[in-house]
Amino acid sequence: MDSISYLLFTLGGADYGLAAEAVQEMFLLPALASVPEVGPEVVGILNLRGQLLPVIDLQVCLGYSRQPNDLSQAVIVVRCGDQPLGLVVDQIQQVEAIAPSSITLALETPYLGQAEVPLVVGLTRREDTVVVLLDPMGLGQGCPDLSVAPLGQTDQFMAQFSPADRQVLQLRAAGLTQQLIDESTSTQTALAVVGLDGEHFALGLETVHEFTEVSQITPIPCCPPHIVGNMNLRGEVLTLVDVRHCLNLSPAAGASAQKAVVMRLGSLVAGVLIDEVFDVVYVDASEVAVMPTAAHANAIPYLRGVARYGDSVMSLLDLPKLLTQGQLVVDQSNDQEMKN
C-alpha cells in the first residue's frame, strides 16, 4: 500500500502528525479576537480572508493544561467537515511520507481509542521518538460553531504579549484578512521575514524547510569563517552557515547564536544563522523596488529588491543563489566526516 503524507509538528515537547490532505494552510500565530462563553480550548477567532476561523489550543484538546502563547508558535488550518479549524502548535517540522505498515492503529493499542470522540488514530516511530497521529475530524467534533458568535475583546488573548509583540501579531492578522488574488494571475510571493544585525530580510518560503533553535555547535576544522560548525537536528547533522559578511554585516557571535533557518535546496541542506523570526507576509511583485546601489553594495547579486515592512523596509534575499552560486559553498563532505 502506498505511503501517506503527514504534516509533522511539535507541541509541548512531543511530536505529532496530521494527514497532509486534511491541511489547508499554515501561518505564524496572529492576533486573535476573544470569544465569550466558550470552552477553555478556544483561543480566539480570526478573520481569514473574509471567513471567521475558530482557533483552538491543541494542548487543551489533548487534556493538558493551557500554556502561555508566544510569537514562534504557528497555526495549522485543517478541514473538519464543512468547517475549517485552526490549531495552535509549537513548531511545524516537515511533511513526511509514512508507510501504513509502520503505523500502529490506536484501536490496536491498549488504553487508546477508547474515548467517546477519539483524537488519536495511531502511533509511529521516527528516529528515536514516537509520533502521535491525530484525527482532524475528532478535533473538530468538540469545537463550538463560532461562525456567528459575538466577538469579545482582543485583550484576553493579547494581554499575555508585550506591546512590541502585539504589533507583530496585529501585522500578521492584517495580512491574513486580505483576499488573495486568483492563483492563475497572482503575482504575490510568500516571504518569511527574519532579522539579521538589526535589519529585516525576507526569504522565499518555497525553500524554507523550517526554523529551529540552535543547540550545541560543533566546530569544523579547516573551514572558512562563514562555516560556523555543525549541530544535531533530530539526529541529522546540520551545517550552520553565517551569511552576514556577504551582506556587509557584522559576523555572528557563534556562542550567542539562537536561531537558524533550515534550507533544503535539492541535495543541499544547510542552516543559516539568524537573530529573529518576525513574520510571514505576502508581497506583490509591484511592491518590490530596485535595491539601492549604496545599500549592501557587495551583496547586490543576492538581493532581489526591497519592499515595505510595517514602518521600515526589508531586503528580499535570494538565499538559494547565495548558497549555491555565491561566496558561500557548503561542503557536505564535512558532515560525512563528522559521522564517521
Notes on the structure:
The protein has 340 residues and is mainly beta. The chain folds into two domains: 4-166, OB fold (Dihydrolipoamide Acetyltransferase, E2P); 188-339, CheA-289, Domain 4 (OB fold (Dihydrolipoamide Acetyltransferase, E2P)), CATH 2.40.50.180. 12% of the residues lie in helices and 42% in strands. It has helices spanning 58-61, 136-141, 155-158, 163-177, 319-324, 333-339, and strands at 4-11, 14-19, 23-28, 42-48, 51-57, 74-80, 83-89, 91-98, 103-105, 120-126, 129-134, 188-196, 199-204, 208-213, 227-233, 236-241, 259-265, 268-274, 276-284, 303-309, 312-317. A six-stranded mixed sheet has the order 8-1-2-11-10-9. The chain has a five-stranded mixed sheet with strand order 3-6-7-5-4. A hairpin with a 2-residue loop joins β4 and β5. The longest helix has 15 residues, at 163-177. 33% of the residues are buried.
